[in-house]
Design a protein that fits this description.
Helix content is about 25%, strand content about 30%. By secondary structure, the chain is of the alpha+beta class. Strands 3-4-14-10-13-11 form a 6-stranded mixed beta barrel. It has a 4-stranded antiparallel beta sheet with strand order 2-15-1-16. About 35% of the residues are buried.
């Protein structure tokens, strides 16, 4: 059984043009740690700086003749973090792989939806709260929330028939606390309408476990940056290979800001076969 699963997954052909996709984790180098009392303000300013640098890098990448598209996510497909979701009317929670993504992610990668529609900019609601920004840039919005979600075929099957999940609602569930000083609390996010079903287009890692269910939420670049200290940027290329464009990707980042760093740069083909 293990040998057959290994052979099946090891010879699975990718369903999107992985040789044309190059992705990297983009961060701004931090020279020193802030005092504990100023950590929140420091993080806000650092994220605002990263956003401006990432926006400029995206603009320059889109202007390159060999680039067919640029997209972003909190986690690139195949590398999503684990989370738990509650399905409206269901019992208990489901373990899923989760990412906040550009609404054009599937278009750039060339992935069709199985049912429903893709995510749209109107699926992201922006709040009024703004963090302080310096260096002449616009404030970084840190109160962004999604109102819709994409699920993959695995999660759709667990929720019901593929077409029947459209219009149903899910929400993220997180457990916090639970140490000696506090009791465990359960935090529940807002309800999200399932607007589309995407195929399972990445190779799953553990051959002895069922395929992971996936949930994608729409986000702006500002929303992804405000949720962490970096962002996954991916480019789709035309007329050139991902390895050949890697040096140009780094040169563009350095031209924007020498402190802008690209970590773990690799093609989607490398991720697929790994």
């Amino acid at each position: 059984y293990v040998a057959w699963q290994s052979l099946r997954r090891g010879t699975t052909a990718p369903v999107y043009p992985v040789d044309q996709i190059l992705r990297a984790w983009v961060v701004v180098e931090r020279t020193e740690a802030p005092p504990a009392a100023d950590a929140a303000v420091h993080d806000s300013l650092a994220n605002a700086l990263l956003l401006r640098r990432a926006e400029e890098l995206v603009r320059r990448l889109k202007g390159e003749p060999g680039v067919a598209g640029v997209t972003f996510a909190s986690a690139f497909p195949g590398e999503e973090r684990y989370a738990r979701v509650e399905v409206e009317g269901g019992v208990g929670t489901e373990r899923v792989r989760f990412s906040r993504t550009d609404v054009d992610l599937l278009d750039v990668l060339g992935i069709p939806v199985v049912a429903g529609r893709r995510l749209a900019a109107s699926d992201v609601r922006t709040g009024a709260g703004k963090s302080v920004a310096r260096d002449g840039g616009a404030p970084l919005d840190n109160e962004e929330a999604a109102t819709a979600a994409l699920v993959d075929a695995v999660l759709a099957e667990r929720m019901g028939a593929t077409g029947g999940v459209l219009g149903r609602r899910v929400r993220l569930v997180r457990r916090t606390g639970g140490d000696e000083a506090s009791e465990e609390r359960i935090e529940k996010g807002p309800w999200l309408e399932v607007v589309g079903v995407m195929p399972d287009f990445t190779v799953q890692g553990d051959i002895l476990e069922p395929a992971d269910a996936k949930l994608y939420l729409p986000a702006s670049l500002a929303g992804v940056v405000s949720g962490g200290h970096g962002v996954n940027l991916a480019v789709r290329l035309r007329g050139t290979s991902a390895p050949a464009f890697a040096a140009r990707f780094r040169a563009l980042a350095a031209a924007v800001d020498p402190a802008l760093q690209l970590h773990d740069m690799r093609s989607a083909a490398d991720l697929h076969w790994r």
